Amino acid sequence: MPIQKKESLVRSTVFGNRADLSRRGLLGAGAAALGMTWGGAARAADKPFFQRHNLPVGIQLYSLGPDLAKELDAQLATVARIGFKSVELAGYLGRTPAELRAAFDRAGLICPSAHISPKGESGFSGDLAKLADELHVIGVKSAIMPIHYIPDRMGAADLRQAGVQMTADDWKWNADFLNEKAVVLKKAGIISGYHNHNFEFAPLKDKNGGDTNGMEILLKGTDPNLVTFELDAGWVTAAGHDPIALMKAHPGRFTQMHVKDIKPTTKANFELRQDPTEVGGGMIDWTKLLPAAYAAGIRGFYYEQEPPFAHARLESARISFEYLAKVTA
Fold it and tell me: 116-133 pLDDT, tens per residue?
């Protein structure tokens, strides 16, 4: 055999075809890279929901009841030890904004959201420039109206009855009210929002005789550039509605959520009735709802629970936090 052919045969036998080697190398490297990508994605998906998205688990301080005002420092310290990082105010708890900020700082907590009454001097009907200044002191970025403005004609009506007595025109008035106040607060650097209960879902007829409800009127009647919404998952479910379907029907409108669970014994109603329980112990599938909420744009998550409680309030908060800290969704 000629020397050149022999050398060519040896190269082919020992080293193979270089083009083939190059292709096999690229394929191997690609497979390895894909394996690393899939493996990384799998590991990320295995992380708990809040850890994976680097989001704090918050608490709406209403959950702690009337004793919070008397034991503010002690209870906030316990809230922080449980693992909560953020809180949402429901009133000033008898403190000044500066005193509240100092209390949150001592506990290592932030307060990016607050429920602000629709009525009163310190509410949406009061001096909004003063309100914005106070919220800035506390560190609040979102002022959430926790309930509708009850028409004056209802007087001191029971809240359950006031909710179901609202007309389509009453809800439209509330939408206009929110838009008006939100313009002022936005200029002062504060986001305005609305928090639902279940009476917003009571069936109504619009001016053309079509089916609607208070929640639909608020969502459609408020300016998306001005007014956001805080979805209370427990109250939506208590009304017999699906929180995921609600978010999908109104993309981009919800930015905060009350993470609230209810027992399967809760019967659909519009009169502030539910059978409450700790998060993870009720009928809501959080493994589906949490990722759906994140996909819808919600970034502020606050545990909240209604009375009656089966445990001490702080113990219920701990049970809910431990579930949320571990849930993979």
Answer: 999 999 999 999 999 999
Segments in the chain below pLDDT 70: 1-44
Choose which CATH entry (3.20.20.150, 3.40.50.1400, 3.40.120.10, 2.40.10.240) describes domain 48-326: 3.20.20.150
Non-local (6+) Cβ contacts of 152 within 8 A are none
The whole-number pLDDT of residue 34 equals: 55
Beta bridge partners of 86: 58, 110
Q: How far is 118 from 242, CA to CA, in rounded Å?
A: 27
Radius of gyration over alpha carbons of the chain, in Å? 27
Instruction: Judge whether 201 and 239 are in contact, CB under 8 Å.
Output: yes
Is the overall model pTM greater than 0.90, yes or no?
A: no
CA separation, residue 63 to residues 11, 46, 273, 289 (Å): 78, 30, 16, 21
Q: Residue 131 is encoded by which pair of tokens?
A: 């309100």
C-alpha to C-alpha distance for 83 and 321, rounded to whole angstroms: 7
pLDDT tens, position by position, 192-220? 999 999 999 999 988 888 899 999 999 99
- Peptide bond between residue 203 and the one before it cis (omega within 30 degrees of 0): no
**Is the preceding omega at residue 251 within 30 degrees of 0, hence cis?**
no
Element (H, E) at 77: helix 72-82
**Residue 29, number of CB atoms within 10 A of its CB:** 10
Residue 286: which residues within 8 A CB-CB, separation 6 or more? 259, 261, 279, 280, 323, 324, 327, 329
Beta bridge partners of 262: 276
- Amino acid 282 reads G
Q: How do the domains of the chain map onto residue ranges?
A: 3-42, 48-326
183: tokens are: 């313009």
Q: What is the reported pLDDT for 41?
A: 55
